Amino acid sequence: MRKSLFKILLFNFKETKNIIISITTTLVVCMIFLQIMHNPYLKIEAHNISDIFIIPTLILGIFIISSLIMTYSVGFYMKQNSKELGLIRMAGYDLKKTISYYSLKISVIYIIALILSIIISLLFITFIQALLYKLVAIKGEILFISLNAVNEAICVVMLILFVILFYQLMYINQTSISDLLKDNSIVIYKRNTRKYGLQLRNEFYIMMYFIGLILIIKSEFSGGVVIPSCLGAIGAYELFNKVFPSIFKKNIKINKTNKDQYILYGDLSLLMQQSKTTVLFILIVQIVMPILIIVMNSNTLAFYVYNLAYLLFNILLSVCLSKWLSTDYYNKKNHFKKLYALGFTKSHIQYIVRKYICLYYLILLGIISIYLFASTLAILKLSSYYLIYIIIIGLECYIPFLIALLVDERRIRREEF
Amino acid sequence: MENVIYVKGLTKIYNKYNENQKLAIDNIHLEIKKGDFVSIMGPSGSGKTTLLNILSTIESYDMGNIQILDIDINLATEKEKAKLREESIGYIFQNYNLLDSLTIKENICFSNNLNKKKVDEDYLNQILNQLNITNIANKYPFECSGGEQQRVAIARVMMQQPSIIFADEPTGNLDSNNSNEIMNYLTKLNKNSVTIIMVTHDCKMASFANRVFYIADGKINKVINKDKKSQDEFYKLIVNENTDL
């Protein structure tokens, strides 16, 4: 069994590589963040009661986003391996044996990712610590490594990974073998068709988004701004999830004859509605974190640590979004084959996909940019000195997402369907 | 002769909980004896493959009783069904379902390797020779033709030595020469008391069986037996029945 398992892992290197990259990124981010938290030279002193909760909230946030990445990565990996899963169940493997088979496989993948992440994070930790010591003028050990931080990161990510693997295998076990053997028909998430909660009009969400903006611009820039920014984050989420898709659907009805636009806006609105969870996290982080960073500028160490946290959040979220888009592209392969059969060329289909992925990023970054701009106006009222902070925050926000966009665009160019 | 498969009141509904419900299998009763060679024929969407998948325990059903080798599938646990698939059931797929990452030899021994059973090299070589695939044993599936891949799929099932083989259009993707060859292998296996249940569209292929079930709208409409007829006579009878239906 082991020989076949290792051979399958090695042969399907492309699939294995994807999950290794995701786990490595998650491990590196967690190790760096926990290392900074455990570094005695970089201890942030709490000035008031709310400061006590910020660091645990950030750690929790990193772990939640890590879980999201693991969910998408394992789900995507299972999708790619549905035939193998069907064949091993056909060969007489029950759930227990299937779990042990995949646990062994994921363990091998995890060990490879762990080795890589230890090497990468050692380099980054040294660099980040040296930079932070210099910025806050502390004499600390540059090569300080907290084993507790490393252990915590390894254990938490491993726990998240295996819990998600077990959960997904339990869920996949409900899929019949015949469905598993038909590629692309594995069910990982149950589509929730129930409608609950208030169903509000689009205008309400647009209003919510702009009220958040106005409150930020009008108010004195302090910790209290976080509340209107949360309101704005919810408005932004609904704008992305409901308002824009409904506008696109209306646009489709008007431009019925244009088949390119029909596919482009149809797929884009579906994509925007389906990527709910990832987008919610992205918007909360992008709207709340910059405000938190600027508010904390009086405490130099906290200011830099929150900046680092913001950058790490963005790296994780961009990986998460990229993974989500990969899964979505994989799910739509049959849809693309149908378009191909209807007379579209492969390059034309890829052009449409690239276009709606770019539009997706553009809308997302556009919604965020308006908020960043409002925050900039509010901050510049206090002092023009803060402009450099805004530029740094902007770079920390845009660079990871622009890299993710380039990676996705390049992947689609090379992908076959 | 003893029943290897006994089915009573089998019903399967697709999309049970939404508006697009489809009755795929409608109250089917059937009995298949040890050493039988059964063909299931019928138009597209009539429920042939669904029936085959349910009988081979790779798909669930909604109502009815199924007994396979005296095991009541309604009462069987997931583990018991897995054991049944491991030891007694072989499945030949129309699209072969070989793993691209393993060589032909490794694909054939896949089930043995997974279940930590020692591979009998003599038996493996005998199968490779018999199916004329010795020369491709170390190649990968994507390096082989459709006919070769289908023979590998049969070899994989033979290696497993099951007592029942389910075949879903095993010749669906092959030319007539390769199709006849495949059917000859299946007939040889059947002569060794292996029960074969095969889905096919092709009257010629169906004539290799000794019983043909006609299925339409999820119901078995007609059963014809070969009895003492020659293969040609049986073929003509199948063609006639097919035209009538």
Could you explain how this protein is built, in words?
The complex is a heterodimer of chains A (417) and B (245). Chain A is an all-alpha fold and 417 residues long. Helices cover 81% and strands 0% of the residues of chain A. Chain A has helices spanning 2-11, 13-38, 49-80, 82-90, 95-135, 147-172, 177-181, 202-218, 226-254, 259-274, 276-295, 300-331, 333-341, 346-382, 387-414. In chain A, helix 1 packs across helix 2 (13-38). The longest helix of chain A has 41 residues, at 95-135. The two termini of chain A are 31 Å apart. With 245 residues, chain B is of the alpha/beta class. Helices cover 36% and strands 26% of the residues of chain B. Chain B is built from 9 helices and 10 strands. In chain B, the strands form 2 sheets. Chain B has a 6-stranded mixed beta sheet with strand order 6-7-8-3-9-10, sandwiched between helices. A 4-stranded antiparallel beta sheet of chain B has the order 2-1-4-5, with helices on one face. In chain B, strand 1 and strand 2 (22-33) form a beta hairpin. Chain B is globular, with a radius of gyration of 18 Å. Chains A and B meet through helix 1, helix 4, helix 5 and helix 7 of A and helix 2 and helix 4 of B.
